[in-house]
C-alpha cells in the first residue's frame, strides 16, 4: 500500500510559498557575494544543533554549542548533553556530505540515526528500527511489526513522488510522517528534523546550507508539539501542519536575509558572479576541506589553464587560498583554519 499524504494548498499556503520564493531569490543573489558564506554555514550548524537538541531537553546554550562546534571542551556540561551535541554535528556532516544523494535507503536512515543517537538512547538500539511498542504523549505510534513496511512506503514516496511538489512542502510532509511512525526506540525527534533538513538540501532549496528552521520550532516548543498533535485530530490532514512548517521556513529566510545584510555591512565584499563550476568547486572544498590542483582538474573536468580561470577570481575575492609548497600545495577556504 502506497503512502499518499492528505493536504490542500490553501491561499495562505500559496502566498507563503510565493513569498519564500522571492526571499530565496534575494538570498541566492546576495550569496554571489560569498566571502562570508562559511560564516553563515558555521552559524547554521550551531543553530540547528542547539535548537533540535534543545527541543528534546538538552540544557546547553547556543554559545556552549558554538564552542563544541569549534572543538573546545565544556567543563560544566554533563557528558550526555555534550555527546548529544557532538552527535548532532556528526549527523549534519553526514547529511551535508550526502546532500546530492538521489535515492535514500533504510541503510542511510540507520547510519544517520546511529550518528545522532549512539550513546544517548534511553531505549532501543542506535541504527535499528524498534521491536517494541512506544507512546509519545497522547500519540500511540504503529506497532513494531508495522514499522519496516511503513518506512518502506515512506521512502518510496520520498524517492519517487516527493519531487512532484515544492521542497518546502515535502520537507514538512516527511517531517510529520516520520514522527508519526516513530520508527526508532529513541532519537526520533532529532532524526525526523534532520530528514526534513536533508530534503531541503537534496532538492537544492538550501544550496549553501545556511538555514536553521529548527530554531523557529524550538523558540515556541509548545506550539511545535501542538501542531504535530493536531494532524491525527484532523484525520491525518496535513494542511494545518504544512502552513505551520512553511511559516517557519518563511521566518527562517527572513532571519538569514537579515544576517546577510549585517555581514555585508561588517565585512563588505567585492561582487563576484560565480559560475556553476565555481559553485561546484566551493561545494567540494566544503566537503573535502582541501583539494590539490590535480584533484580540482579531475573533479571539474578542466585543464590546468581552465582551473586557473576558476580559482583566480575566488582567490582575489578572498574566498579561498593556497597553502603548502609549490609541489604539494592545496586549496582551502580562507577561514577554514578557524572554523
CATH class of the largest domain: Mainly Alpha
Characterize the largest beta sheet: strand count, sense, and whether it forms a barrel. Answer: 2 strands, antiparallel
If you compute it from the alpha carbons, what radius of gyration comes out, rounded to the nearest whole angstrom?
A: 21 Å
Quaternary structure type: single chain
**Shape, per Cα inertia axes:** globular
Mean pLDDT: 89
* Strand count: 2
| Secondary-structure class | mainly alpha
Counted up, domains total: 2
Query: Cα distance, first to last residue?
Result: 47 Å
What name does the CATH topology of the largest domain carry?
A: Fic-like fold
Instruction: Provide the CATH superfamily of the largest domain.
Output: Fido-like domain
Determine the fraction of residues in helical runs and give it as a percent range. 55-70%
Q: Estimate the strand proportion.
A: under 5%
What does this structure look like?
The protein has 339 residues and is mainly α. It has two domains: 11-265, Fido-like domain (Fic-like fold, Orthogonal Bundle); 276-333, Winged helix-like DNA-binding domain superfamily/Winged helix DNA-binding domain (Arc Repressor Mutant, subunit A), CATH 1.10.10. It contains 14 helices and two strands. The protein has helices spanning 11-30, 37-55, 62-69, 79-97, 106-117, 144-160, 167-181, 188-202, 214-219, 221-233, 239-267, 276-288, 293-300, 304-316; strands spanning 320-323, 330-333. The chain has a two-stranded antiparallel ribbon. Helix 2 (37-55) crosses helix 4 (79-97), helix 4 (79-97) runs parallel beside helix 8 (188-202) and helix 7 crosses helix 11 (239-267). The chain is globular, with a radius of gyration of 21 Å. The protein starts with 10 loop residues before the first helix and ends in a 6-residue tail after the last strand.
Amino acid at each position: 500500500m502506497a503512502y499518499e499524504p492528505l493536504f490542500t494548498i490553501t491561499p495562505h499556503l500559496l502566498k507563503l510559498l510565493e513569498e519564500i520564493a522571492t526571499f530565496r531569490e534575494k538570498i541566492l543573489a546576495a550569496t554571489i557575494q560569498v566571502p562570508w558564506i562559511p560564516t553563515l554555514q558555521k552559524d547554521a550548524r550551531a543553530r540547528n544543533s542547539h535548537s533540535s537538541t534543545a527541543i528534546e531537553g538538552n540544557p546547553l546554550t547556543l554559545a556552549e554549542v558554538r564552542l563544541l562546534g569549534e572543538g573546545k571542551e565544556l567543563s560544566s556540561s554533563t557528558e550526555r548533553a555534550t555527546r548529544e551535541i557532538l552527535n548532532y554535528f556528526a549527523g549534519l556532516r553526514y547529511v551535508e556530505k550526502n546532500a546530492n544523494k538521489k535515492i535514500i535507503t533504510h541503510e542511510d536512515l540507520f547510519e544517520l540515526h546511529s550518528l545522532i543517537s549512539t550513546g544517548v538512547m534511553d531505549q532501543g538500539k542506535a541504527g535499528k528500527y524498534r521491536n517494541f511498542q512506544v507512546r509519545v504523549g497522547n500519540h500511540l505510534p504503529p506497532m513494531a511489526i508495522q514499522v519496516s513496511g511503513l518506512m518502506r512506503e515512506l521512502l518510496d514516496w520520498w524517492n519517487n513522488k516527493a519531487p512532484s511538489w515544492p521542497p518546502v512542502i515535502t520537507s514538512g510532509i516527511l517531517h510529520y510522517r516520520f514522527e508519526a511512525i516513530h520508527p526508532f526506540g529513541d532519537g526520533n525527534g532529532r532524526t525526523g528534523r534532520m530528514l526534513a533538513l536533508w530534503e531541503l538540501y537534496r532538492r537544492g532549496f538550501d544550496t549553501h546550507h545556511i538555514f536553521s528552521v529548527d530554531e523557529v520550532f524550538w523558540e515556541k516548543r509548545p506550539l511545535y508539539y501542538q501542531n504535530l498533535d493536531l494532524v491525527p485530530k484532523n484525520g491525518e490532514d496535513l494542511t494545518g501542519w504544512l502552513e505551520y512548517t512553511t511559516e517557519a521556513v518563511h521566518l527562517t529566510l527572513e532571519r538569514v536575509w537579515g544576517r546577510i545584510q549585517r555581514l555585508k555591512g561588517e565585512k563588505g565584499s567585492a561582487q563576484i558572479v560565480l559560475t556553476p563550476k565555481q559553485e561546484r568547486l566551493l561545494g567540494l572544498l566544503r566537503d573535502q576541506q582541501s583539494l590539490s590542483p590535480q584533484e580540482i582538474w579531475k573533479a571539474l573536468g578542466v585543464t590546468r589553464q581552465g582551473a586557473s580561470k576558476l580559482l583566480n577570481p575566488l582567490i582575489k575575492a578572498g574566498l579561498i587560498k593556497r597553502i603548502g609548497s609549490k609541489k604539494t600545495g592545496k586549496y582551502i577556504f580562507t577561514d577554514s583554519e578557524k572554523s
